[in-house]
Amino acid sequence: MSTHLSLEDHLAALVRSGAALREAAAAAGFDATVPTCPGWDVTELVTHQGMVHRWAAANLRGDTDHDTSASQAEGKAAADLLRWYSDGLAALVDTLHATAEDAQAMVFLKDAPPPRRFWARRQAHETTIHSVDAISAVHGRWPRASDVDIDPVLAADGIDELLTGFITRGTGRLHSAEPYTVLVRIDDTGHAWTVRISEGPIVTTPVEADRADVVFSGSAVQVYLSLWNRADEIATEGRSDVVDQWRSQIQIRWS
């Protein structure tokens, strides 16, 4: 699960997306529903992301007694929720800057990079996707790529993390007795991945297959948001049922 982006690239993306989430949350209002996260309002979204930032920083520091439930309750009780959120984001960025490159910490994706790089990348994408959720609350619908300001190179990196790190862990529900391949092709950055679905774990290779049963394509941001089930702008060639299977069976959850 390699990345062509630097630590500084991921830190900059984390800061940008963190600010975008805060701005959109303020614009939507705390009681607004979040169309991309059924059952959540903006308060739930902001407290969740603030908790995750604190949890990530605690992992990097080696704080084994960090209580995520207490952290989320603290956010909901805060007099100024957005200040509480911003404080957690700033603390995470500071922790990432201060962490040694060879520091040991928990990671949880397949073939993950060293912990400092892992957490910078993971939180850059975690926060970017949740900033899209906040934007969906502003619009009252699933967003389109044109609604967000995401660097296509960052989006391609996030697709790679999802396809090679998340869905290949062997814990997903997307299986098929008859194996088939999905080609994910990005029009504007030139990236491609071949995903093999079978009865066993999903296998992803960062190359373009000569033949595939289905092709997903679009701009990097369109595909990034669509594969994370935040948009519906992916173009499909071949089997029409695979997109619906993806929507129902590839769902990354906190627990």
TrEMBL record:
The record places domain MDMPI C-terminal at 154-243
Which segments constitute the Mycothiol-dependent maleylpyruvate isomerase metal-binding domain?
12-134
- State a GO cellular component annotated for this protein: plasma membrane
* InterPro entries per UniProt: DinB/YfiT-like (IPR034660), Maleyloyr_isom (IPR017517), MDMPI_C-term_domain (IPR010872), MDMPI_metal-binding (IPR024344)
> What GO annotations for molecular function exist for this entry?
metal ion binding
What's one Pfam family here? MDMPI_N
Enumerate the NCBIfam families for this protein.
maleylpyruvate isomerase family mycothiol-dependent enzyme (TIGR03083)
- Entry protein name: TIGR03083 family protein
Q: Which organism is it from?
A: Micromonospora rhizosphaerae
